[in-house]
Each structure stands twice: as C-alpha cells, then as structure tokens.
Amino acid sequence: MDQPVEKPHAEPIVASSARHLYPVILSGGSGTRLWPLSRLSYPKQLLPLISERTMLQETALRAATLGNGEVPLVVCHHDHRFLVAEQLLEIGVRARKIVLEPDGRNTGAALAVAALMLARHDPDAAILALPSDHHIADTARLRAALEIAHAAARAGRLVAFGIAPARPETGYGYIRRGATLDGVEGAFAIGQFIEKPDRADAARYVESGDYFWNSGMFVMPVALLLEELKRLQPTLLGTCMAAVAGGRDDADFFHLEEGAFAAVPALSIDKGVMELSHRTAFVPAAIGWSDVGSWTSLHELKPQDEAGNVLEGDVAIDDVRNSYVRGDGHFVAALGVSDIVLVATEDAILVAGRGRAAEIGRFVERLKGRNRPEALHHAKVYRPWGSYQTVVVGERFQVKRIVVKPGRKLSLQMHHHRAEHWVVVQGTARITCGDECRLLHENQSTYIPLGVTHRLENPGKLPLHLIEVQSGPYLGEDDIVRFEDDYGRGAS
C-alpha cells in the first residue's frame, strides 16, 4: 500500500481567472478489468454497458448540459480516433477538437495537453475533466456540485469531486476532508490522499465519515494548472509543450507529435499535482457515481433478479445466486453456482469469483505477455470504413465477413503473399482490380490475384456485406501495401 500523503493546512484563497468552463473528456483508458468485453482495441468507454448508448456517448451528452455550453475537447488514443468521432456524430455532439495521443501517458499528460490547447484559445479557461467511462445517475446534483467547484476554481483552487464511500472499496483512492474553505460554502481543503488502502483501513475510512472516494473528475483553472505543472512536474509540462508545438491539425483531429510525446512521463494528475500542490480543494458530490471499473461494479448497477443475479444476452440458469452471467454471441447456461462472473464472447470465456473481479486486469496483462490476441482485439475488428470478422482459419486460408458502411471505401492496396475471393452477400460493391472497375451485386463474386492493386467501395445507401476468402502462404494483416487511403493510414 502507498503511504498516505498529508496535505498542508488550507491557505487563504487567491482569486483566479477561470470564468469560462470547458469540458475535457478523457477517453484514453483500456478498461482491462472488464475483459473479455473490453479490450485494448475497443475499450469499455466505447461500449454500451449501462444503456443503449456507449459510455463515451453518455459522457458527451452529459457534458453538453454542464458549464456554459462550451463544446468538449476530447483526448483519446490515436487508434480509437475514428470510433470516437463516429460515436460523437451518432448523437449529434461536435467536439472542439479530438486530440490524439500516440500512446497512453495517463491523466497528467492528457490534462496538460488540454490546458495548453485551451490556453491558446482562452486565457480565462477552466477545465472540467470528465473521464469517459463513468456512470452518473443524478446529473442535477452533479450540476449543483459543479457550481460549488467552479466557485472554488475561480477562487484559486484545483478542485476534485469526492464521493461518499458506499463500502470499504480497496480499488479506489481516498480523500480525507480538511478545513472548510472560507468564502466557498460546500468546498473543503484536501487533508490527505490515500491511494488504494487495504480492506481494514478502507473499513475504518468508511466508518469515520471523513473520507471520500477520489472520483477522478476535476475543475481546474488552466492558468493555475500550468503554473503548478511548471513548478511540480517541469519535465512533463515541457515534453507536452513540445508535443503540442510539433503537432498537426487534421480536420476534426489534432495529432500530437509522436517523438516528443514518447518522452512524456506516464503520471496521473493525482500523483503528479493534486497530492503535491497546496492549492487544491474538493467538493463532496452525491451524484450516484460509479467508474464501472469491474464486473462487480457493473453487477451492482444493473437490475437484479430475486436471487441477486444480473443476466444479459442468451442465458439460461438454474439455482444460481448473486452472479453476473452474460452471453455475447454464445448461448450460456449455468447451474448450481453462486458469486461468480461468467462472460462469454465470440472468442473468449471468462469465469471468475466475484470477489476476484478486481484482479482481472492483472490477469489480462499476463495474457498480453503470452501474446494472446484475445487480450487486445475482439473477434470483430472495427475500421473507419466498417468492420471485419474472422470466421474460419485454416492452413493457407482464412474466411472473413466484411461490412462496409454506405459511402465508405477501403484503401487502394495490394498484397505480396495472398490472393482474395469476394462474394457479395448484401448490397452493392464497386471493385477496382488493376485497371478494371466494375459493380458487383448480391450473389456475385470476383477474384483478386496476388500482387494486383485493388480497392473495395460501397457506393450504395445501405451497408455492404461480403464474404472474403484469403489464400496464400502468409495471411497477416501487415501484408498490406497502401497507395491511397482516405483515413491517413500507412502501410499496415
């Protein structure tokens, strides 16, 4: 367990210029504790876990109701850019910019970059930092807590939101309540940070009533945040400044400069700034908060049957209690078990004791070390033009189902090691093969010889579905040479 970090006594508040509040949505997490549903290539914030909308979409819609109506700045991994952009488009939310991180560097870098970009636009800006994978049941109470937090920010504080603990949780950081801040009713100094205590200490914190979960949501004056980063984390700030200065705009996206960003230290804003600064505060917020960080927390959020079970998908049970059972793509049956998590996807099955759910993230890291593709990717792989799913893999061949969105097209490309056969199942395909371009309709097929330049397009208004049969000595996804690409991708 990390040692608790004592905070200085509350100092007199010095006014800050933080008049304008800008939502910053942090969408860089991997959500490995919700494996096998959440994976690196398609993490939990991009999934519809609580409602019909994804966690990112729920956060973006929530952000639109907060503050002074400013559109959000979104920070995400480069590989998720098209998924994020499309999910925002689906709900009619326009991002100020989608900032792309070449690699994850934790919340310190994400918020430093956001502050640098907003400072160029508005020196009176304040950040409302919203992780994209949180569930909040009571937006009205969040809005009320935000008013207090914004007042504390305007008065010169970096402000966290604290959640009254519902149980002795060992997976969260805790904040000990300090003195009341003069002039800001409902806001308190942060007396102490405790990072993920053991169960005995967590039970003591809950009993005392003076400790709150650290929600990971913040209100921060941009000028003050940059000042504290310069004082406390000069290397992090300097490398982020270089990544922003060397970055480039690309329509809705801002690409951070890869070389500079690689030198950014991986550090959370909590450890890098909030635990060290004397200009912090927190606001208790009874908002029905959950970070949906594990199967246990998802089990608690979902409606349960009379035996305490949450059942989702194609599931049948008998004599099952206090369990989460989910079938995505498979029929799942459970008999005579209790207190388990059972999740079946098309390519992986997880069975775990509910009490061990917090350990799934470490288990997935071991799977990565064994080069298991299931640790990183789903059976269905999403691309900006649509998706593909491997159906059968054999010696020197594999079969895929490909879906191309209306009006989208794959890159103009060729392969050194494989030939391809395409059969249209539904919709219309425009096929470029060498110098020939023609349309294919349902039940028609074509052959793409090895080494021939080709392209697949959907010129219609409905999704295009086709079956692809690949054959050859090597069938890896890195056997692609791209000549033209609408999405700025390289050769693989």
Structure in words:
With 492 residues, this protein is α+β, with helices and mostly antiparallel strands. It has helices at 55-64, 81-90, 106-121, 139-154, 199-208, 222-232, 234-245, 258-262, 269-274, 295-301, 360-369; strands at 5-6, 20-27, 73-77, 97-101, 125-131, 135-136, 158-163, 174-180, 188-194, 211-221, 248-250, 253-255, 280-284, 289-290, 310-318, 324-335, 340-344, 349-353, 380-383, 386-394, 397-404, 412-414, 419-426, 429-433, 436-440, 445-448, 454-457, 464-471, 481-484. It folds into 3 domains: 5-290, Alpha-Beta Complex (Spore Coat Polysaccharide Biosynthesis Protein SpsA, Chain A), CATH 3.90.550.10; 295-369, no CATH class; 380-484, Sandwich (Jelly Rolls). It has 11 helices and 29 strands. Strands 1, 2, 3, 4, 5, 7, 8, 9, 10, 11, 12 and 13 form a 12-stranded mixed beta sheet that branches. The chain has a 6-stranded antiparallel beta sheet with strand order 19-20-21-28-23-26, with no helix packed on it. Strands 15-16-17-18 form a 4-stranded mixed beta sheet.
